[in-house]
Amino acid sequence: MIRICIVGEIASGKTFVSNCFGYPIFNADKEVIKIYKKSRKCFNQLKKKFPNNINRFPIKKSQIKKILNQKNIKSLSNIVHPYVRLSLKKFLKKHKKRKFVVLDIPLLIENKLYLKSDILIYVNSPKYIINKRLKKRGTYNKKLIKILESQQLKKIKKKKFCNFVIENATDRNNIIKQIKFIKKKIYD
Questions:
Q1: H helix or E strand, kind and range, residue 162
Q2: pLDDT of amino acid 154
Q3: 109 CB contacts (<8 Å, ≥6 apart)?
Q4: Are the beta carbons of 155 and 41 closer than 8 angstroms?
Q5: Which of 20, 52, 54, 94 is most buried when burial is the number of CB atoms within 10 A of its CB?
Q6: Which residues partner with 4 through β-bridges?
Q7: Which string of b and e fits 113-122 if b means at least 16 CB within 10 Å?
Q8: Rounded distance, CA 4 to CA 104, Å?
């Protein structure tokens, strides 16, 4: 199995690029949402750690936003990330006979979830496009974005780990061309 790992800044277009490959996708952000909705065990751990804010199951984003700050982000990650890793393990087992899978994991490099044999792709978008996308989401919160960005390696360092860079500042067709180029390189 060849693992194609998609990394990049918040709102750089990682999910869009992942979908364009046409292979089974593990999306860590979506898994976190599922965990908040379905894992009572995770809820109990978060409730124990943050009793003033996490008090209803399923966990809502509004509860998480209340605890997200520079001080709590590590504790939150330490509780939630093992569940994400378990979901990843199940995904890989389910798709073990597939030739390719796509891993859309924003903190893949930071959490050392990649293998030497993985194909790492950095999705690069200009800051003004990222800001435009974040504002479109309707939940734009500059302070919250800064906290989440603080968990990621800087762009320059992250790119050094990657085999390819996809420029996501143009139209869909250009991105498809870049993906076709990468697929051709992988197949050769």
A1: none
A2: 87
A3: 7, 120, 153, 158, 161
A4: no
A5: 54
A6: 102, 119
A7: bbeeebbbbb
A8: 9
Residues written for the chain: 188
Strand blocks (E) in 88-135: 100-104, 119-124
Q: Which is the CATH superfamily of the domain at 1-24+97-188?
A: P-loop containing nucleotide triphosphate hydrolases (3.40.50.300)
Which tens digits make up the pLDDT trace of 8-19?
998 999 999 999
Count Cα neighbours of 147 within 13 Å in the Cβ-side half-sphere. Answer: 18
pLDDT in tens, 69-127: 878 888 999 999 999 999 999 999 999 999 999 999 999 999 999 999 999 999 999 98
Tell me the one-letter amino acid at 187. Answer: Y
The answer to whether 121 and 18 are in contact (CB under 8 A) is no
Rounded to two decimals, the pTM is 0.90
Cis peptide before 24 (omega within 30 of 0): no
Task: Read off the pLDDT of residues 147-175 as tens digits, 9 standing for 90 and up.
Answer: 888 788 888 999 999 999 999 987 889 99
Which residue in this structure is represented by tokens 């943050």? 50
Alpha helices, DSSP H, located in the chain: 14-21, 28-38, 40-49, 61-67, 73-94, 127-136, 142-149, 155-161, 172-187
Structure tokens at 97: 């006979």
Cα(30)–Cα(2) distance, integer angstroms? 22
Query: How is residue 3 written in tokens?
Result: 């693992």
